[in-house]
């Protein structure tokens, strides 16, 4: 395969740095079928443990189905708010955290631990790698959607039991991600929760250790240590 051109590399990094978890900017414009098919195909080409491809994609446009999922969201949001003290509880309840009804398509991405039988190369020591594989498919979908100017929002404030009932999922199938996809009025400059000062963005230098846990400097890593002191994001999104 040929190398990536500078333009192609810039496009990839732009998709990564400008990807957003969209909740409040969806509009009613439908996603063209060819665009949706490309996005799903990108998700299906994610890496997976033992090449097991353990995902399925449940596509949802029916308003009644969306409404049932929305009801689960409201119940779970209220329940989870009881874990937060004021004044942060009030702020949490005021946040827009989903676009279930506003988005054109909802997609539930699931994990099937039985696909290709009980033995999967690479999963015997770390069983969770099956679910990690599905998360790779989610990320592929998200980046492909961003390149197509389609917004994606991951709704994790949901009951998996409710999802299984609403979508008719078999007992052995695990819902991993419930995503809202649609055209948007804009992609925000920063993630919504960063803008709302819910949590700060950590600097790269604050999450890297060298050779072992807790070691923030090492002579053999001096050059990379210097590079990560600067914010590298913005060079790719201007």
UniProtKB/TrEMBL annotation:
<feature type="domain" description="Nitroreductase">
    <location>
        <begin position="16"/>
        <end position="183"/>
    </location>
</feature>
<keyword id="KW-0521">NADP</keyword>
<keyword id="KW-0520">NAD</keyword>
<dbReference type="GO" id="GO:0016491">
    <property type="term" value="F:oxidoreductase activity"/>
</dbReference>
<dbReference type="InterPro" id="IPR050627">
    <property type="entry name" value="Nitroreductase/BluB"/>
</dbReference>
<dbReference type="InterPro" id="IPR029479">
    <property type="entry name" value="Nitroreductase"/>
</dbReference>
<dbReference type="Pfam" id="PF00881">
    <property type="entry name" value="Nitroreductase"/>
</dbReference>
<protein>
    <submittedName>
        <fullName>Cob(II)yrinic acid a,c-diamide reductase</fullName>
    </submittedName>
</protein>
<dbReference type="InterPro" id="IPR012825">
    <property type="entry name" value="BluB"/>
</dbReference>
<dbReference type="InterPro" id="IPR000415">
    <property type="entry name" value="Nitroreductase-like"/>
</dbReference>
<keyword id="KW-0560">Oxidoreductase</keyword>
<dbReference type="GO" id="GO:0000166">
    <property type="term" value="F:nucleotide binding"/>
</dbReference>
<keyword id="KW-0285">Flavoprotein</keyword>
<keyword id="KW-0288">FMN</keyword>
<keyword id="KW-0547">Nucleotide-binding</keyword>
């Amino acid at each position: 395969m040929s190398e990536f051109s500078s333009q192609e590399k810039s496009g990839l990094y732009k998709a990564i740095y400008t990807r957003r978890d969209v909740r409040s900017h969806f509009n009613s414009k439908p996603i063209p079928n060819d665009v949706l098919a490309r996005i799903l195909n990108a998700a299906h080409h994610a890496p997976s443990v033992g090449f097991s491809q353990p995902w399925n994609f449940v596509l949802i446009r029916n308003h009644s189905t969306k409404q049932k999922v929305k009801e689960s969201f409201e119940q779970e949001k209220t329940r989870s708010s009881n874990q937060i003290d004021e004044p942060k509880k009030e702020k949490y309840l005021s946040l827009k955290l989903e676009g279930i009804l506003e988005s054109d398509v909802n997609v539930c991405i699931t994990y099937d631990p039985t696909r290709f039988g009980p033995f999967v190369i690479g999963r015997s020591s770390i069983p969770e790698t099956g679910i990690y594989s599905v998360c790779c498919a989610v990320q592929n979908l998200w980046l492909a959607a961003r390149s197509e100017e389609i917004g994606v929002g991951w709704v994790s404030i949901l009951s998996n039991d409710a999802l299984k009932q609403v979508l008719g999922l078999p007992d052995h199938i695990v819902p991993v991600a419930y995503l809202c996809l649609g055209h948007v009025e804009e992609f925000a400059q920063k993630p919504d929760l960063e803008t709302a000062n819910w949590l700060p963005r950590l600097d790269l230098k604050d999450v890297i250790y060298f050779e072992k846990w807790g070691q923030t400097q090492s002579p053999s890593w001096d050059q990379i240590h210097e590079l990560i002191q600067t914010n590298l994001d913005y060079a790719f999104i201007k």
